[in-house]
Write a structure and sequence with these properties.
single chain; alpha/beta; SIR2/SIRT2 'Small Domain'; six-stranded parallel sheet; 10 helices; about 15% strand; binds zinc ion
Length: about 260
């Protein structure tokens, strides 16, 4: 079985070509080339902050935890600011804009890089929320970071919602906080309806990442897994490709461009 990278890319591109409802599912691995830190890696955020402490319940109930939490968020915000989409994000955007193949991008990432790369915000489903917005935990009003940056810069307490006095928090899903149910339901539905489900840069371990590819298979779709390391769902995939997201997707795009001629 001598498959070279071009053969694999041609196979994936061929399946994209035949499909009309491609779902791209992405995890941290698609953003590493952009320099987005993987918080779970050694030296990452979770070496400096104790994840056990960083729960939604602590954020809501303990002012002291909240201060540490905001310090963490501010650190993340600074690390995220300035990151740009890479060739893998741009390829995914092309599947939507150039080829009209994409029914959805479902992502575990909170970095907003799919939208930045050119995918329509309406097609991007962020399972873990977004780093780029703040939300009031009481009335769900949305705010931009601008309103808290001064306070964070000066080590002061972040103000509450100007409308209702509720607590503000970045619109990401924290430990102990439920996934947004509308997003989750949509993600499940889109996965069932997918004729091709491509997982890129996710270890497919945590829920619901571990479930969506199964739904795609149950719905009769093909499953492609692109990840540098093996995943527990590899046995059910039609194709497993252990390579970086950027390398895989640029090879796939090369093949798609050739199919246009
Ligand atoms: Zn409010």
């Amino acid at each position: 079985m001598a498959f070279n990278i071009e053969d694999i890319a041609r196979q994936v591109a061929g399946w994209i070509w035949e499909s009309s409802r491609v779902v791209i599912f992405t995890g941290a691995g698609i953003s590493t080339e952009s320099g987005v830190p993987d918080f779970r890696r050694p030296g990452g955020i979770w070496d400096r902050f104790d994840p056990e402490e960083m729960t939604y319940q602590n954020f809501v109930s303990k002012p002291e935890s909240r201060r540490v939490y905001w310090e963490l968020y501010y650190n993340c915000w600074k690390e995220f600011a300035g990151v740009e989409p890479n060739r893998a994000h741009l390829a995914v955007a092309e599947l939507e804009n150039r080829y009209q193949k994409l029914s959805a991008v479902i992502t575990q990432n909170v970095d907003g890089l799919h939208q930045e790369a050119g995918n329509s915000p309406g097609r991007v489903w962020e399972l873990h929320g977004t780093m780029w917005q703040l939300t009031c935990l009481n009335c769900s009003s949305e705010y931009s970071w601008d309103i808290v940056l001064d306070a964070l810069e000066n080590g002061e307490e972040v103000e509450n919602c100007s409308g209702c006095g509720g607590l503000l928090k970045p619109a990401t899903v924290s430990f102990g906080q439920a996934l947004p149910s509308t997003v989750l339901l949509q993600a499940q539905q889109l996965s069932v309806e997918a004729d091709l489900f491509i997982s890129i840069g996710s270890s497919l371990v945590v829920y619901p990442a571990a479930m969506l590819p199964q739904l795609a298979k149950d719905g009769g779709g093909r499953l492609v897994i692109i990840n540098r390391e093996p995943t527990p769902l590899d046995p059910m995939a039609d194709l497993v490709w252990e390579v970086s997201a950027g390398e895989a997707m640029s090879e796939v795009m090369e093949q798609l461009y050739q199919m246009e001629d």
